Amino acid sequence: MQGETGRTKHFTRRAIILGGAQTLLLAGLAGRMYQLQVLESDRYKTLADENRINMQLLPPPRGRIFDRFGQPLAVNQLNYRLVIVPEQAGDLERSLSELGLLIPIEKHERERILREAQRKRNFVPITVRENLTWEEVSRIEVNAPDLPGTMIDVGQTRYYLAGEETAHIIGYVGAVSEKELAGDPVLALPGFRIGKNGAEKTFESALRGKAGSRQVEVNAFGRIIRELRRDEGQPGDDHILTVDMGLQVYSNARIRHESAAAVVVDVHSGEVLALVSAPSFNPNSFTTGISQTEWNALMANPRFPLMNKAISGQYSPGSTFKPIVALAALDGDIVNPNQKFLCSGYTVLGNRRFYCWKRGGHGMMDMNSGIAQSCDAYFYEVAKRVGVDTIAIMARRFGLGERLGIELPSEQKGLIPTRDWKLAVHGVPWQKGETLIIGIGQGFVLTTPLQLAVMTARIANGGIAIQPKLVRETQRVGHRLPDTREPFHSMGLSAAHLAIVQKGMFDVTNSPRGTAYRARIEEPGMAMAGKTASVQVKRITKAERERGVSKNEDRVWKDRDHALFIGYAPVNSPRYAVSVVVEHGGGGAKTAAPIARDILHEVQRRDLARRGPEKNIVLDMTAAV
Amino acid sequence: MALQDHFDGGRTGMSLLDRVLQINLILVLLICLPALVGFAMLYSAAGGDMEPWASPQIIRFGFGLVIMFGAALVDIRFWLKSAYFIYAGAFVLLIGVELIGDSAMGAQRWVDIGPLQLQPSEIMKIALVMALARYFHTVAIEDIKRITALIPPLILILAPAALVLRQPDLGTAALLATSGAMMLFLAGLRLWKLGVAFVGLIGAIPVAWQFFRDYQKTRILTFINPESDPLGAGYHILQSKIAFGSGGIFGKGFLGGTQSHLNFLPEKQTDFVFTMLAEEFGLVGGIALLLLYFALIAYGTVVALRCNSQFGRMLGMGIIATFFLYVFINMAMVMGLVPIVGVPLPLISYGGSAMLTLMFGFGLVLNIYIHRDVQIGRRLHHMRT
């Protein structure tokens, strides 16, 4: 027919053009595929992994803390938590009502759970209650089939087995504060706890360990599909302290009813065998968050239970300072130990009288009797000759006036005054009379119980400058870490001079005229040497004297003298040194010396130094303690 | 019947058996192969499960085969005669969704007829091709040069396009307009006239822009710079490109497409199914599917050219061109070459209406192969030659 062939030809031409155009466009698609999947593939692969792979931190188990014989002091307890997954629970309110029949769920808790459920994606578990008892766990587990979506989840909570006994040494952990958040990302994990006080704080980084991580594949909604890689990280290092729990408990019991502190050190190794401060507190209250009532009670207590008096309490050493004054005199060849001074109950300087504690006077005193009977007049004379700066130098050689570096936070320096110090701080020149007061360890001079114990140890060990240490060894996953601490050096004191002081201190407790003769240890081979001190907190006023107040017992507690005692034993081969400070305890000989005696007796009875524990502490990481 | 008298051509009286024997099995095979790929991808999309997508899709495809063979075996002149009726019916349905349609994903596209959900815009794609094929079958080549002869086809194209745009369904509107334009091109319309129409369309964009809804505007804007808003509107394009590109040359393996299975890839069983295929089978798999489509398009074009009647040629080419547009727009869309407009990948994407209308269209292509030698008169009054 007419026109039909032309139409066919025309159509075919157009169809081929169209087909060609389609082919070109399809080829263009192929080119785009090549671009995306070959040329730019690496970039998209990276983006794909970023999409789906999520890193999660695994909190490392915190390092445990043991006493020197491996007795656990701080452990991680399993914390059973009840969690509920709203997605699986279905009707959340009904599930909670059913759970409420098994374990108590407070009304506000219930509201919190419902609130959380609205905020979070419905497959994210919500904590219903923490710290379930075993009985509660069983009750829930038994009924588990009827409680869809509920699970018992296990976390870890720090637990201090010895509680109050070691609170001042170990401290406690608490929630991470805003300020502390910087650095380690593990800190941001919900419920993570860090050391807030004591060894927990000092050894925080070692105890914390290194966080593990796991790579998980997540879908577009953030739900975990599977685990791709897991790095367990490194559990915190276990710390074995130098403290002997037996002695610690004994010492605590001995000062329990006082506001007091006591420190026992090994005179050769510097190991702190016991460090107690009374009153104490329950560290377990802090790990889960302390109640307001308990906190208020701690803060209101006039005896400051939260303060570690052994390292933070600063007291005038009183007569316990006299051995240092004596050594300063001997070392400078200023006073001959046999030189005698007359004690008539006071010493006169200018127009002022400086009284001896014994109003009637001691008579003629040499160095030995001066120490043994703690004659103030004798030491006024010595101090007058030696001078405050020379005394200060000797005091510093014994570790006074500076931090000893024990592995605990908030250790105080104490104070050893010099002429320059007074001018700089008070703006007034040194008065000669102040030197006399320093000579009997009062006035400006301040020491901590720890410093007194170390000072005593350095006298007892023949002048080796030991430093206190609290950690015997650290173990990482059961392997002992090398000890990098330096050995101790001699202080360069004359053995003869030390012997004179040691004899004086021996006579304090073993000569019938010694101030603490009644607190001597009679058991053969255990005899102790020591030095008493009673430090005036408040002068007895004229008014009080007129009312007949002359003894400490007659005064209000906070006006009474501090009672101090330093000592070491056994005298023949000294091994243990102790310091005891009883705040407002009255007389050193009467209150502090018996405590020191009992502690020194106990430590010798236990004979810690000879019970070598090194090889038999095997810490099983898996043991549930 | 009067109509039958007018259109009856030379070779009449092909028996049903004759027609069955004339079914082009190569074409049937080329249709089934992408469908099989589709089943595998839907199985993978469900994480290795026949439910919820693969099984219904197989049933639907089986149903589609029945429709396809049905459409193939009917006499071609029936389709010629009923072309305008089908167009009119589709147009009425299209108006119907404006009134009674449900809103699905911000666009009214469905009409409920009993339990069956119908998408009139899908039917319109084939109906438009049929109506235009019939129109140009009856118009002499000389007449096409007259501007007045262009008015009816332009109305046929623009009326449903405008309705669909109102729904609003940007993709289908563009698809209708483009396949209409291709029909005009095939009919022999002067290129400069098409050029004028194209310029006119470009000029109409700022006007049309005001009628676009916000989500359509953001789709176009984020197409231009998808990285600007990676968690918002650009998310789909970006995630699609990530999944696509991370597949590399050999892919991550069947069922191994991490981006798809972790739901980073949106709509992986429908519009983005090609991305999942490319992620799991890589460049190799993508090119293979592309070649499969190319074979179907090329073979379909050959079948259309082989046809003796202008109606058959126009219809065949029109359907194949529409099919091409589906493939091209969908693939270009998931690879970030054109905006996300919601066009499924034919034969593979999960979905009812598109599959059934497409199978109907392929039935018509098979039909014109069966009736390739049937002469059909141009005018109603001299159908017999």
Q: How would you characterize the overall build of this protein?
A:
Helix content of chain A is 37%, strand content 20%. Chain A is an alpha+beta fold and 625 residues long. Chain A folds into 2 domains: 50-84 and 160-241, Penicillin-binding protein 2a (Domain 2) (Alpha-Beta Complex), CATH 3.90.1310.10; 245-286 and 308-471 and 488-610, DD-peptidase/beta-lactamase superfamily (Beta-lactamase). In chain A, strands 2, 3, 4, 5, 10, 17 and 18 form a 7-stranded mixed sheet that branches. Chain A starts with a helix and ends in a 19-residue tail after the last helix. Residues 613-625 of chain A have low confidence and may be disordered. Chain B has one domain. Helix content of chain B is 68%, strand content 3%. In chain B, helix 14 packs antiparallel against helix 15 (310-334). Chain B is globular, with a radius of gyration of 21 Å. The two termini of chain B are 19 Å apart. The interface between A and B is large, with 41 and 51 residues.
